[in-house]
Amino acid sequence: MVAAEESKAFALLEDLLAREEFEKAFKAACKLPVSPEQTEALVFAALQIGRWEDARAAIRRLRQQQQQQQQQQQKAAAGGAAAPPLLLEEAYCLYRLNKPQKALLLLAELQQQEQQQYNAAAATRLHAQVELLVANYLSSAACMLQAEAASSTSSSSSSSSSLSHPAAVAAALKHNCSSSATFELPFNGAALAEQQQDDATAAALLQRALQLCAAEAGVREEDALRCIDRGELAGVLVQQAAQQQQHGNTAAAEQVYAAVLAAAEQQQQQQQQEIDVGVVAVAVTNAFVAGLQNEETQQQQQQQQHDLEALIRGATKGASETLEHKLTTPQALGIGVNRCLGLLKCGRVEECRRLVTSLISRFGDSVSLLRLKAAIQV
Known about the structure:
Elements: H1 3-18, H2 22-30, H3 36-48, H4 52-72, H5 87-96, H6 100-112, H7 120-133, H8 137-151, H9 166-176, H10 184-195, H11 199-217, H12 233-246, H13 250-270, H14 277-292, H15 298-303, H16 308-315, H17 329-345, H18 349-363, H19 367-377
C-alpha cells in the first residue's frame, strides 16, 4: 500500500473508531498492513464487537512479524528481546473465551515484563475475574483488594503485600467491603464467604453488592427486581436468590428466576441481549431444581419431563455469546449435575450414565458426580 493511501486509510479508521462504528472499523483495519498501530486499532474494534478469536489472531500476526524482525536484526545485544505486544488484550480474549489457565499464564508473563508499560490496575482486575471463573475465590478477592488499594488514596486501605495469607484477605475484605465504591469486591467476597460456609457474611456482602450495583445502574434498591435487565443486577440478584433457595426460601428465589426468564424472553423478541447468558442459564437451572423438589401439580410433573439442556437452549436462543464461554467451573458442573438429576427423575438412566461419564472426564471425581455414579449403578 502506498504511503499516501495508507495514511488516508488510517484517517478513515480513526474516524470510524471515533464514531463507534466498530464493525466498519474492524473491516477497515483488516485491510491495512500489519503494524503495531494497525493491530491495536483492530484489536480494540474486535473487543467491542466480541470477536475474541479474531483479536487473538491479529495479536499473533503482529508477534510473528516482530519475531521475524528481531531474527533479522540478530537480537542486538544492547537491546535484547522485546516484550510480546498486547499481552493484556490477549489475556482478556482468553478470559472471554473461557480459557482461564491460558489467560493466567499470559497475565503472569505480563507481570514479569517489568520494562513494559501496561495498565496494571486493569491487569489486576482481569486477574481477579479469571480467578473467579475457576472458583479460586481467595486469589480473586486478594486481587480485587489489591486493585482497590492501588486506586485509593486512603491510608486505611489494605497493603497488597500482606494479601498472600488467607486470614489477611478475610480481614481486609471485612474492612474494605463496606467502603468499596463498586459492587465487584463485596460480590467476590460473598463467593469466598460461601465457600468457607459463612452464610451470614455471604448474605450481608451480597446485600451490599446489590446496593452498589443498583446505584451503578441508576435505580433504587427496592426497584432492582423490576429493573433486572439494568447493568449487572441480574447476576447479583440470581446469586442472592440461589442462597435464599439453599436456605429454604424457594418462593423468593423463584420470583427472581421468573423475572430473569421473562426479561430474557422479551430480549429474544427484541433481538437484544442485556442479561448475561450465563446468568440466564443459572436461573433456568435453579428454577428447574426447585421444580424437581416440588411435584405437587401435574404441570410441574410435565415440566420435569424436559431435558434441562433443552430448557437452557430455549432460554438463551439468539445470544451473541455461547454459553460455554460464560459459565464458571462451579456453574458448569452444577448445571451438568442437575441435568443428570432431571434425567434420573424421568427414568432416562442410560442417558444419565453417559452424561455422568462425560462430566467426570471434564471435572474429575467431585463428590456430587461420585454420588450420581453410585446412584445409577444401583
